[in-house]
Design brief:
single chain, alpha+beta, Protein Transport Mog1p, Chain A, 2 domains, eight-stranded antiparallel β-sheet, 6 helices, 12 strands, rod-shaped
Length: 282
C-alpha cells in the first residue's frame, strides 16, 4: 500500500509539471535557449571582433637580430632618365621668318609675294624683290642655284614700344648674342635700295636697336628703328636680314655684301679676254 501511495504521488507530480510546460511551444523554448547561449558567449564575440580591427604591437625578442632574413624579392626601380637629366634647352630656328625660309626654291616662296627679278636670270645670285606685298613693306631675296640663301625684309611701322618689339624677336630667335642701342642716322643693310619713302620713315625714327643671332650655319640681324623717347606715340619699324652665313662665306664671290655679279648663264657665255698685240719693234 505504501508503494502504491508513493507511485500515485509521483504520477500527480508529473501531471502537474506536464500541465505547466505543455502550453509553452517547443520552438519558443529553443529560441530562448539560443538567446541564453549567445548572452553567455557575448564577451568572447566582443573580444574577437575588437581584435580583428586592432593590430597589437609587435614585440621583438632578444635574438631577433640573429634570425636569417631572406633577400627582398623586389628592388626599388631606378628613376626614369627624364628625371635625372635636365630638359634640353629650347631650340630657336635662325633660318626663317614670316613664311620665308632659307634653302627654299623660288616655287616654294609664299604665293602672296609678287617677286620680280632685278638682274639677269642665270647670274649668281639672282635677285628678286617685292614692295608692299603680303605682310611686308619690302622684300629682297638672293637665290643661288635656285635656292634662297639670303633675304632682307622691311616690316610696316607698328605703334608699339621698343621693348615690346624686342620681346617679340626674342620669342622668335631667343636671347641675342649682340645688342646695341644707339641714336644715329638711318642706314640699311642688304637692301636692294632705299626708296625716298623709306628714307623719310627712317628719318623720323632716330633711335636704333641692333640685335644679332648666330648659330653654326645661319645669322639673323635685326634693326629696330624707333621714335624718340619723348614722342607722344611710340612707333617702331623692323628691318631684318637672314643669311646662310657659313654657306655664303665658303663661296668665292657674293653680292649680298656688295661684291660684283658673276655670270653663270650658259646662253650668254663670257667673252674671252683679247690677246695682247705683238710689239711693233722686236
Amino acid at each position: 500500500m505504501a508503494w502504491r501511495r508513493k507511485q500515485s504521488n509521483t504520477d500527480k507530480a508529473r501531471r502537474g509539471l506536464r500541465r505547466i510546460f505543455e502550453p509553452i511551444p517547443r520552438a519558443a523554448v529553443y529560441a530562448a535557449g539560443a538567446v541564453l547561449v549567445a548572452l553567455l558567449l557575448s564577451p568572447f564575440w566582443i573580444f574577437l571582433l575588437d581584435s580583428g580591427y586592432q593590430r597589437g604591437p609587435v614585440f621583438l625578442s632578444d635574438d631577433a637580430r640573429l634570425l636569417p632574413v631572406p633577400p627582398p624579392a623586389m628592388t626599388t626601380a631606378a628613376p626614369p632618365e627624364a628625371m635625372l637629366t635636365p630638359p634640353p634647352a629650347a631650340v630657336f630656328p635662325l633660318d626663317r621668318y614670316r613664311g620665308l625660309r632659307l634653302n627654299a626654291t623660288l616655287d616654294e616662296m609664299p604665293a602672296q609675294l609678287k617677286l620680280r627679278l632685278q638682274n639677269t636670270r642665270g647670274m649668281l645670285p639672282e635677285i628678286y624683290a617685292a614692295t608692299k606685298s603680303g605682310n611686308f613693306e619690302e622684300v629682297t631675296a638672293f637665290f643661288y642655284h635656285n635656292q634662297l640663301k639670303e633675304f632682307t625684309v622691311v616690316m610696316p611701322e607698328k605703334h608699339q614700344s621698343l621693348a615690346a618689339a624686342e620681346t617679340e624677336l626674342v620669342e622668335l630667335f631667343g636671347e641675342p648674342q649682340e645688342r646695341t642701342l644707339a641714336v644715329t642716322a638711318a642706314d640699311g643693310f642688304g637692301l636692294r635700295r632705299e626708296s625716298g619713302e623709306l628714307q623719310e620713315k627712317l628719318a623720323r625714327l632716330p633711335r636704333r636697336l641692333t640685335l644679332r643671332w648666330s648659330d653654326a650655319e645661319n645669322t639673323v640681324e635685326a634693326t629696330l628703328y624707333a621714335a624718340a623717347a619723348e614722342a607722344s606715340r611710340p612707333t617702331v619699324l623692323l628691318m631684318l636680314h637672314v643669311s646662310a652665313a657659313r654657306w655664303l662665306a665658303a663661296q668665292p664671290t657674293r653680292l649680298g655684301s656688295g661684291a660684283g655679279l658673276v655670270a653663270t648663264n650658259r646662253l650668254a657665255p663670257v667673252e674671252p679676254e683679247p690677246k695682247p698685240l705683238p710689239p711693233l719693234f722686236p
